[in-house]
Amino acid sequence: MSSEQRIVITGVGLTAPNGNDLNEFRKNLLAGKSGVQKFETRYMGEVLAGVCDFDALKYQKKKELRRGTRAGSIAIYCCREAAIDAGINMESVDRSRVGVYLGVTEHGNVETENEVYNISKYDYDTKFWSHHHNPRTVANNPAGEVTLNMKITGPHYTIGAACAAGNMGVIQGLQMLRLGEVDLALAGGVSESIHTFGIFASFNSEGALASHEDPTKASRPFDKNRNGIVCSEGGGVYTLERLSDAQKRSAKIHGEIVGYATNSDAFDFILPEPERQAECMRLALERAGLKPSDINILNAHATATQLGDIQECKALRKVFGGEKAVWINNTKSFIGHTMGAAGTLELSGNLPAFEDRLVHPTINLDELDPECSLENIVTGEPRRLDRVDYIMNNSFGMFGINSVLIVKRFQN
After folding, report:
1. 360 part of the active site
2. 250-267 per-position pLDDT tens digit
């Protein structure tokens, strides 16, 4: 493949419940530090959630925060940080050739709930409904807020892909670069989900909302005593470039995207279908020209729901069963489920392994569910490998949307 078609990650911008940049995030993953805490939400009271504490005023004014959305603010922070990490001076690039592609699980619920609550104080008189509501709730809002803030005039849109959305944003950015539609892509995923009580109430009604006396132990993927999802907010955005462009400016390279795939289960609203998930992983491997044994680190999607974890483990066994050198970890055990941001954030937490060769562990896995038995799940302490060449990230979502990314340690 030519250097014009090879796509590399040159910048990472993120905010997670346990870190506001890649170095802090990675440090806390290796140290086993959770970011889950108690959180007050309307009508439900105290729940458990992953809450970010990034400096929203670093790149926005108070007026902009009042007018915009939490998702937009997360997106602006992450995109700005990704550009800075890549060494990109936005004043010196053709902003009509920059694309913004952000995956979201859902958008607009927070703002709609807030407006309904606000007018309830005035006997539901709609004259008190905010005139900012429409731009806050249109589906392209998070990416659109980025273009306003960064004065980007190239294409922007959000990709609604449930919990596969973070990976899908990256896939879209990669495809647009290969098509020559843009020269620089800010791509990834964001989520403000914890600011809507509805997501907690719905998971609670489903019997899939995590609870634990210790918030840091609530997210328990693969564990026999897991009892559901910890909802979290966050964002993860990559600066993507063609290798030829990155090399021209001597950019540092976090990794090269060499394989990706997406497909649909066509099976159920919520319950995953293992065969289709396995197909998605196999297709990503095929596109990368790899065998299952070539993968060094596999970050599992596992959300800590009873059936979801079991179904993914069935898929993993279909593809990687018996492989002794594929090491599996899970980032949701630290930060909960960041929904639209999950794919990019969870992959980000593993990217530094290309340099330090450490596989961060899965925490809170005290008693492995026999139905989730897999080779080489890393628990307890980080595991050092002889080398790390390939990382696979799985992200699966409702309505059976599956996405897989494979990133390679960069070599000329």
Report:
1. no
2. 999 999 999 999 999 999
